[in-house]
Amino acid sequence: MWPTAPRAKNSKRRSTNATGSAASSERAELRPQLPQMINLYDNNGTLRLTITVDSLYYLESQDNYVKVHYKHNDKFSVYMLRSRTSSIEESLAGTGMIRCHRSYIINVRKIAFIGEEHKSYYVTLNDEQIKRIPVSKRYYDNVTGAIAALNNI
Fold first, then answer.
1. 74-121: per-residue pLDDT in tens?
2. Which residues pair with 111 in a beta bridge?
3. Closest C-alpha to 55, from 31, 75, 25
4. Within a 10 A sphere around the Cβ of 106, how many other Cβ atoms?
5. Taking the C-alpha atoms of 94, 98, 99 and 103 in order, what is their torsion angle to the nearest 10 degrees?
6. Pick from 83, 49, 54, 91: which is nearest to 71 by CA?
7. Which tens digits make up the pLDDT trace of 5-50?
8. How far is 42 from 17, CA to CA, in rounded Å?
9. Measuring CA to CA, how many Å separate 132 from each of 2, 46, 101, 151?
């Protein structure tokens, strides 16, 4: 057994995490909340784009490419990424990005309105420059469920 130094009666023991550093809830509360970052990779596994979830609006699939629609310095930008939509969808799990159509993945936090016209659904995002995005019947329940979950938080 290792010898230990005597502790003063009023001293408090601080918990340590797995790395051995002291964990303090006071410091954690003062630390600013960092934005959640998303890394987007191409088919070869090369990192092509890193952006925050808040700046990402939607992704649009076109053949072997995915158009990433995002806002940078208050201007909309589009980045073409050669990747499968399904692999991007898997990497976006837990970020608030959900599939609403075979060709679209949207940011749930950016939805302003969901509507129906001529027996088909669509989503309007919270910026006037963005066109309506279709919501297929297959993904409608996922979209409305994600909106409900976001509103309960």
1. 899 999 999 999 899 998 988 889 999 999 999 999 999 999 999 899
2. 125
3. 75
4. 27
5. -100
6. 54
7. 444 444 444 434 444 444 444 555 555 666 788 899 999 998 899 9
8. 36
9. 68, 31, 12, 22
